[in-house]
Structure formats: C-alpha cells, structure tokens
Write a structure and sequence with these properties.
single chain; seven-stranded mixed β-sheet; about 180 residues; about 30% strand; 5 helices; alpha+beta; globular
Length: about 180
C-alpha cells in the first residue's frame, strides 16, 4: 500500500485523536487495565491535541492511505524527556519522538519506517542530528520495531498509566542520518 505523509494541521485533530485512542487500545490491551482503555475518549484526546498543537516546538506528520484516509501519525521536536544519567548540559540526544501510532490495518506495511524517516528529515532541517523516544517495555511489537531500526536501548523509568505501574524504556539514535539512507 502506498502512503502520503504530510504536515498535520489543526483540522486534522479529530483524525489524530481517533488514531491515538485506537493506537493505545491496540498497543496496550494486554499491558494496562481494559477498563482504563475503554474509558479513553476521542473527544478528550481532541482537547489534548488542541493544546499540544499550540506548542510551536512540536511537529506532527499525518499519514494517509491510498484512499486519502488518515491512518497514522508521528509527533516530535526538541528533547523533552532526558535520558536518566545523561548530561543536562550536553545531553546525548537533542530531539525526541513524542508519539507514533498507526491504525492496525496500516501496520506491517512500512509506514512506521516512513514516518520515522520523515521525522528525521524534518529534524535535520531543525538542526537535530540525534533523537530518542520512550516506549512501554512490554509493547514487544514496538520494542522490536525500534531495535530493527537500529535504536539503542539507553534508559528506563517507571510510570503509572490508568492505575497500572509499567516500565518504559528509551531508545536512542545518535545519528539520524541512518533513517535517510
């Protein structure tokens, strides 16, 4: 399947919110409590994204399938969540992927790689040469994807999501040009 990736606009917020909620339900179904996932609201995520879009340092790219239907997104920008143990003066990563979600029917078709490559290209234009991201450790599908892309595990932290304590791990790429080759 061919995909088109373009910068998202405020008009895309409903589609992004839908993909975000669907992505959580697909990715975390066996990791966090089902009642929490069932309580997620697209309308609430629309409000969140309305606020997040006000952050001028964040970029969002939207993926459309061959029929023009939104099917995935990636948000990224300057580093927000430093890697534990890294230097606060000279952190090893300057940029971060905040979120990447793809509808189940568009997965395993190369879209994740395309989104990461598109983000790396934008980050290069923003003078970022490295990036990191956080992922739930038990989300094996995502963890394997980041390993396959050459990400190096570089940190961990405990968080709570919907009343469930989970571990997040960080992956980093010191040189984003690996996405551009």
């Amino acid at each position: 399947m061919s995909f088109t990736i373009r910068p998202a606009t405020v008009a895309d917020i409903p589609a992004i919110a839908f993909i975000h909620v669907a992505g959580w339900r697909d990715s975390y179904g066996c990791i966090v409590r089902r009642d929490f996932l069932d309580s997620l609201s697209t309308q609430e995520k629309e409000k969140n994204w309305g606020e997040w879009f006000k952050d001028s340092t964040m970029q969002v790219l939207l993926a459309l399938d061959g029929a023009g239907k939104p099917c995935g997104f990636i948000s990224f920008g300057k580093l927000r969540t430093p890697i534990p143990g890294g230097s606060p003066i000279r952190p090893p990563y300057s940029a971060e992927v905040y979120a990447i979600y793809i509808l189940p029917e568009a997965q395993r078709q190369g879209l994740g790689r395309q989104l990461m490559c598109a983000a790396a290209l934008k980050l290069k234009d923003m003078k970022h040469k490295s990036l990191s991201l956080w992922v739930v450790e038990k989300n094996e599908k995502a963890v394997n994807f980041y390993k396959k892309l050459g990400g190096q595990r570089c940190g961990k932290k405990d968080i709570e999501v919907g009343g469930t304590k989970i571990k997040e791990i960080a992956f980093g790429w010191r040189d984003t040009s690996v996405f551009l080759s």
